[in-house]
């Protein structure tokens, strides 16, 4: 089963539970448009290399498509289509006036020079320009893309249209229209969702322990902000390895160590553990903030966390979900837990549209309020329909999208 087929399982469970009209289900199950492009790039050695890129727009029912662009060797059509669908549901759960989209390029950016990376980035924009724009489809950062890459994209797109185009892209640097609070936003959302989940499970954060898988943008901010809530972070990992200390790891000190050495490994006062040991650690809270497919049918039974809060997109496979549910582990699904990034992207876009900028405090207050409301709606849906939080999240999202499809006359309800 590929990722797209796998991602349909909880969606189909939601469609069944809410008795969605089959016409509405048929529309929602398929992306509206997916574009594959070839991007020729002049390499530093004088040769031309052609890279494959994508942009998938899963839905524009609720507003323009919205979602990041990923640079990774494993990017493929199925992954981009799946991630675009997750963006549609993520935006609908948060109540944002957006559909969902996602882009990607098959590339290991670490193997390119800065110049090659810039030319590749501009090349992707040139090829997808006809289908993107402030009112059509708004890209943002995702895995291995950042504010610098968004800056090149903004510059290239502004050249194409001949106008200053900050609102066509989010996750930018502050000097070109970025929003305060955007860098930490996904981590802040994961923290907010995790704190709500601890409340449900009646766990005191001050006495709780946590393991975080991944120490990129999402993992590092998740660890820092959860640490700020008084939770003891006992384990953290990155692609090079995992570390453990029952006395607690200070993520701020760890970030300095990573800046110096390039990895979380060998951090003072910690012992090396394996990725499996991190996932199986006896903790109150586990935050997978790395890649897809980390918690699977093969390891789910061995997990010991009481709450899992998904910072990554798609870290848990459907067969693992069934096992976690049986074990009574409370899972806050990705499309709810990591919606903080796109929520603050929305705030950035709004600020760009009216050229008026908010303080960091305003951004944070609005984000936290919005995410707590989304959590409550999903939790209530899961109770009402007697389903887990993931299916509850789809019910909440599809309910909103369905109303808009009906009003727009996309199908005739029976
Ligand atoms: N890439 C992030 C996500 O998966 C953020 C998307 C956005 O800000 O549009 O949610």
Topology of this structure?
Layout: H1 3-17, H2 22-28, E1 33-42, E2 48-59, E3 65-72, H3 77-94, E4 100-106, H4 114-128, E5 137-141, H5 147-161, H6 185-200, E6 209-213, H7 217-228, E7 232-238, E8 241-244, H8 251-261, E9 271-273, H9 275-280, E10 285-288, E11 307-309, H10 318-327, E12 330-332, H11 334-337, H12 340-353, H13 360-384, H14 389-407
Helix pairs in contact: 1-14, 3-14, 4-5, 6-7, 6-12, 6-13, 12-13, 13-14
Q: Which terms summarize this structure?
A:
about 425 residues, Rossmann fold, about 15% strand, binds glutamic acid, alpha/beta
Structure description:
The protein has 414 residues and is α/β, with parallel strands linked by helices. Among the domains are: 135 residues, Leucine Dehydrogenase, chain A, domain 1 (Rossmann fold, 3-Layer(aba) Sandwich); 151 residues, NAD(P)-binding Rossmann-like Domain (Rossmann fold). The strands form 2 sheets. The protein has a 7-stranded mixed sheet with strand order 9-8-7-6-10-11-12, with helices on both faces. A 5-stranded mixed sheet has the order 1-2-4-3-5. It is globular and about 55 Å long. 54% of the residues are buried. Glutamic acid binds next to strand 3 and helix 12.
Summarize the structure.
The protein has 414 residues and is of the alpha/beta class.
Which stretches are poorly predicted, pLDDT < 50 over at least 5 residues? none
Structural class: alpha/beta
How many strands, what sense, and barrel or not for the largest sheet? 7 strands, mixed
DSSP helix count?
A: 14
Small-molecule binders here are: glutamic acid
CATH topology of the domain at 185-335: Rossmann fold
The CATH architecture name of the domain at 185-335 reads 3-Layer(aba) Sandwich
């Amino acid at each position: 089963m590929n990722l797209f087929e796998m991602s349909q399982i909880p969606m189909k469970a939601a469609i069944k539970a809410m008795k969605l009209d089959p016409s509405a289900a048929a529309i929602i199950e398929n992306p509206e448009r997916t574009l594959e492009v070839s991007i020729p790039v002049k390499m530093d050695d004088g040769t031309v290399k052609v890279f494959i890129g994508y942009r998938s727009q899963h839905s524009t029912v609720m507003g323009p498509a919205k979602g990041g662009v990923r640079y990774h060797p494993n990017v493929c059509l199925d992954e981009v289509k799946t991630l675009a669908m997750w963006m549609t549901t993520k935006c609908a759960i948060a109540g944002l006036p957006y559909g969902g989209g996602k882009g990607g390029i098959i590339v290991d950016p670490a193997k390119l020079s800065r110049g090659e990376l810039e030319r590749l980035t501009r090349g992707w924009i040139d090829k997808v320009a006809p289908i993107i724009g402030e009112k059509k489809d708004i890209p943002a950062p995702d895995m291995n893309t950042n504010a610098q890459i968004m800056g090149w994209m903004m510059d290239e797109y502004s050249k194409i249209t001949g106008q200053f185009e900050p609102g066509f892209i989010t996750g930018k640097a502050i000097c070109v229209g970025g929003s305060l609070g955007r860098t930490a936003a996904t981590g802040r959302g994961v923290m907010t969702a995790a704190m709500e989940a601890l409340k449900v499970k009646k766990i005191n954060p001050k006495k709780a322990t946590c393991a975080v898988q991944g120490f990129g943008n999402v993992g590092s901010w998740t660890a820092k902000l959860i640490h700020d809530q008084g939770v003891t972070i006992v384990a953290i990992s990155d692609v090079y390895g995992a570390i453990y200390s029952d006395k607690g790891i200070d993520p701020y000190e760890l970030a300095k160590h990573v800046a110096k050495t390039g990895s979380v490994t060998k951090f003072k006062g910690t012992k090396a553990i394996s990725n499996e040991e991190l996932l199986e650690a006896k903790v109150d809270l586990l935050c997978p903030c790395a890649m897809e497919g980390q918690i699977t049918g093969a390891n789910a039974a061995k997990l010991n966390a009481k709450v899992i809060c998904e910072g990554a997109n798609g870290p848990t496979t459907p067969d693992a979900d069934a096992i976690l549910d049986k074990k009574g582990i409370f899972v806050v699904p990705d499309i709810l837990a990591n919606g903080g990034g796109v929520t603050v992207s929305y705030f950035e876009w709004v600020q760009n549209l009216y050229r008026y900028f908010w303080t960091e405090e305003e951004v944070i207050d609005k984000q936290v309020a919005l995410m707590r409301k989304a959590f409550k709606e999903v939790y209530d849906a899961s109770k009402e329909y007697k389903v887990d939080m993931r299916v509850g999240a789809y019910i909440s999202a599809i309910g909103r999208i369905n109303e808009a499809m009906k009003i727009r006359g996309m199908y005739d309800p029976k």
